[in-house]
Design goal:
The chain is of the alpha/beta class. Helix content is 23%, strand content 32%. The protein has a nine-stranded mixed β-sheet with strand order 3-4-2-1-5-6-7-11-8, with helices on both faces.
């Protein structure tokens, strides 16, 4: 009998999030799951790791085909801790999500969800980050499940290039047209802060802002795909080198 793949799952919205539960539901038929997620929300943590804070790891469920742990770490911590403490050999796949909200374009750099998937890819493990374009804590993930399954099935059958991860974003609409493989759009967050004076006279700032797509007419980007009713799938590399600039730099040493 063929051995079931070993799959590590994490997220950045916390152990109780609806998106994590939906991803578990979607992927459970494919293999043996180990779930490690933070006990609280870790949105916007990117690839942060805990250096000066001790981590704990508590098992909260163990049954055939699935074991679930909670910790106080970030998504990247969850993956690092799991790889070091829970596996004798590397898992076959690392999946992260389903995130509450978009991780398209420049948000890939801020996302804790993608940070978890990136940590998997850094260890040479095929990894995917999933996100749904709905920030509501009570978001309906039911229509996302089939796309998570479809994309994971593709990875099972075809693999992923070494040290590459898939960033998948799912529009929050009923009639999705399909899946588009696309690049990350060039964009930026125009950030503002809401200022608040507490009853004790202390000044606090709350981050707000809006996303600006710097190439709205480009039809090969994740932003275009999402705006036009498609699931976006962007393969992301870990190599941050700008090779075009290397060609133009001529330092004498």
């Amino acid at each position: 009998m063929k051995k079931k793949p070993s799959i590590l799952i994490t997220n950045d919205d916390g152990i109780q999030s609806g998106g994590l539960k939906a991803l578990i539901e979607a992927i459970r038929p494919f293999g043996d799951l180990t779930v490690v997620a933070s006990e609280k929300t870790m949105s916007g943590m990117s690839h942060a790791i805990s250096v000066n804070v001790p981590l704990h790891l508590t098992q909260i469920l163990s049954e055939e085909g699935i074991t679930i742990y909670k910790t106080n770490g970030t998504p990247a911590d969850c993956v690092k801790l799991a790889l070091n403490e829970l596996f004798d050999t590397k898992p076959d796949y690392v999946l992260s999500g389903i995130n509450h909200g978009s991780n398209s374009s420049i948000s890939v750099h801020y996302s804790g969800t993608i940070g978890g998937a990136r940590e998997g890819a850094l260890n040479g493990i095929p990894s995917i980050g999933f996100s749904l374009l709905d920030y509501d804590a009570n978001a309906n993930f039911s229509h996302s499940i089939k796309y998570c399954q479809q994309i994971f099935r593709f990875v099972l059958e075809n693999g992923v290039n070494p040290y590459t991860l898939f960033n998948v974003n799912i529009p929050n609409i009923a009639d999705i047209k399909g899946i588009k493989v696309c690049r990350q759009a060039k964009g930026r967050w125009v950030e503002e802060y809401d200022k608040y004076i507490s009853p004790h006279g202390n000044t606090h700032y709350y981050l707000t802002g809006k996303f600006i797509n710097d190439e709205p007419e480009a039809s090969d980007t994740d932003e275009w795909a999402l705006k036009n009713g498609y699931v976006s799938l962007s393969p992301c590399t870990l190599d941050g080198t700008c090779y075009e600039t290397i060609k133009s730099l001529k330092f004498k040493v």
